[in-house]
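G., the chain you wanted modeled:
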Amino acid sequence: MADTLAFEISGAGDPVLFIHGLGGTGNVFGPQVGVLSRFFTCVRFDLPGAGQSALGAVRTMDDLVLATLSVLEQAGIDQPVHIIAHSMGTVVAQHLALRAPERVRSLSLIGPVHAPAEAGRKGLQARAATARNEGLTGIADQIVAGGTSADTKAHRPEIAAFVRELVMRQPAAGYAQHCEALAGVEAADVSQIGVPALLITGDEDNTSPSPACAALASKFPDAELLILDRTGHWTTLERPGEVNQALVNFLFGRALG
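Predicted structure as tokens:
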């Protein structure tokens, strides 16, 4: 798996690692890399079976954690990194911070997920089967409908269109593997994560509802919470300016302090 992952490096400075979510690629962080690469070494990559990365033998969340650690090795980064993650990527980030705490300097979790409830696990298994049997077009339409805010659909239709294109072009087998890994994950004990954390969600995020996000933030020893108005689950694309400002404030304030 280590030699099959596509990654990009931009900028110079302390390293920042971006971890995308289900149905995404490193491109969901384009607006963030454009700003943060002025100050940091930004590493974004495609998880195995997503985007330009080859399909891997992904069965569990731990497989995705190991794949993520392998990217740091490929990129030649041996110092602790600031992690910025979205959606499923936030689950990878939480488990990585527990597995290899020496590799993590801070966590910025956008649209964060802890672990799915039983209904969510069944839904993910069903979605995996749909992806394998029918492809991703129908799933992409559902994600745009339920995952972007009313404001985005009305006033930023190009963002909704980009999300649809992003999801429907994913390899169906890789998407299904990610669904199954997420369906089987256990909640990380985030009370044992000792680095500063920033959690960001939207007031219309159905995947990371603000009450659940606030509850998750309260479990971290050191966390900030930001809830953005008129924002769905594709936070980095729907509200890039607000997300970038929050990240800059966090990274130059508490995370580097």
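The CA atoms of residues 195 and 224 lie 12 Å apart.

Shout if anything looks off.
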